[in-house]
Specification:
It is a single chain. The chain is an alpha/beta fold and 326 residues long. 41% of the residues lie in helices and 16% in strands. The chain is built from eleven helices and eleven strands. The strands form three sheets. A five-stranded parallel β-sheet has the order 3-2-1-4-5, sandwiched between helices. Strands 6, 9, 10 and 11 form a four-stranded mixed β-sheet that branches. A two-stranded antiparallel sheet has the order 7-8. Helix 1 crosses helix 2, helix 1 packs across helix 8 and helix 2 crosses helix 8. The protein is globular and about 70 Å long. The structure holds xanthosine-5'-monophosphate. The site of xanthosine-5'-monophosphate has 14 residues, from loops. Xanthosine-5'-monophosphate binds next to loops.
Length: 326
């Protein structure tokens, strides 16, 4: 039987009971596969790798070694949450690598979008590979492959996800959620006790804020983007829009305009809000954010974020605009 084919008889996991049954089954399977050997996992903090980590911690505890690479392009608080949940709460064997300087130094002055993506993807593999080679006795590599990744075997995820790993790594794979759809991964994650904000996370591109800090990334503009994005997310949480809007974020272009702040000339970048709804990301419509909320977000971003002096709302559906700006 093809182990990469979801059996027709497999029931869709929609309840905690079904999730628990799946978890028990996978714990037994992972134990049988791994024995007393060690397993390595690149833990990005995204839904799939987080659920795999939580499942493997339950199955094999400290035999799992998680590596979290902070490429400096994470959203505000994300790496901190990975450490809090996996190291502090789940007592995982977690190696945290702050590689911010490596990534930002390489990206300095690079403005072509595809070149930026290539640098980020390539450097991620390098950092992870270096870390893996320092570890001894690793026999397996765990991955958060899910069923759509197998179905879309044109390599979309491999290309899209920064977590793509070197081809010459000679490890046997452990892929406990590879036959699950995304909604099932979330149900399993909840049953494993992961926090809702981790399990229900909106999609976030592998190259992270790197594709939203448009043009050549600078630390000050990246920082402004991260702070503005955090305000947008906080206000969407407060308004309950985090539960209904598919994806929302800020992009900051590499241009300045004149403004006035405290009676003085204040040059700054514009923050562009994007909030879209879609089912498959192939096409998308615009969320009708209430004007009062837009005014509030604008007031907060322009007063709280150093370097931003205007806020714009992107009303462009896909097509004609893509969801991201680069
Ligand atoms: P676009 O911009 O193509 O985005 O309309 C469609 C969906 O894909 C995500 N996206 C990416 N995800 N790496 C990723 O992992 C990327 O380089 C990338 N570019 C776009 C985007 O966030 C949206 O959900």
């Amino acid at each position: 039987m093809d182990s990469n084919k979801r059996p027709d008889t497999m029931v869709r996991i929609t309840t905690p009971e079904l999730a628990n049954a799946f978890i028990d089954e996978q714990i037994a399977a992972v134990k049988a596969q791994v024995g007393d050997k060690k397993v390595l996992l690149a833990l990005s903090g995204g839904v799939d790798s987080s659920v795999v980590a939580a499942l493997l911690i339950k199955a094999i505890g400290k035999q799992l070694v998680c590596v979290h690479v902070n490429h400096g392009l994470m959203r505000k608080g994300e790496s901190e949450q990975v450490i809090e949940v996996f190291q502090n709460q789940l007592d995982a064997n977690l190696i945290y690598i702050d590689a911010t300087d490596r990534f930002l130094d390489l990206l300095a002055g690079v403005d072509a979008p595809e070149k930026k993506r290539k640098i980020i993807g390539g450097e991620f593999i390098k950092v992870f590979d270096e870390e893996a080679s320092k570890l001894e006795g690793i026999s397996f590599l765990a991955q958060g492959t899910i069923y759509p990744d197998i179905l879309e075997s044109d390599g979309v995820k491999a290309h899209h996800n920064v977590g793509g790993l070197p081809e010459d790594m000679q490890f046997e794979l452990v892929e406990p959620v590879k036959l699950l759809y995304k909604d099932e991964v979330r149900v399993v994650g909840k049953a494993l006790g992961l926090p809702a904000e981790m399990v229900d996370r909106q999609p976030f591109p592998g190259p992270g804020l790197g594709v939203r800090c448009l043009g050549a990334i600078t630390r000050d503009r990246l920082n402004a983007l991260r702070e503005a994005d955090a305000i947008l997310r906080e206000e969407f949480d407060n308004a309950g829009l985090n539960k209904t809007v598919w994806q929302y974020f800020i992009a900051v272009p590499d241009m300045k305009s004149v403004g006035v702040k405290n009676d003085k000339r204040y040059e700054g970048w514009p923050a562009i809000i994007r909030a879209v709804n879609t089912t498959d990301a192939m096409s998308a419509t615009i969320e009708e954010i209430p004007y009062a909320l837009l005014h509030k977000i604008t007031a907060r971003i322009t007063s709280e974020v150093e370097g931003i002096n205007r806020v714009l709302y992107d009303l462009t559906p896909k097509p004609i605009g893509t969801i991201e700006w680069e």
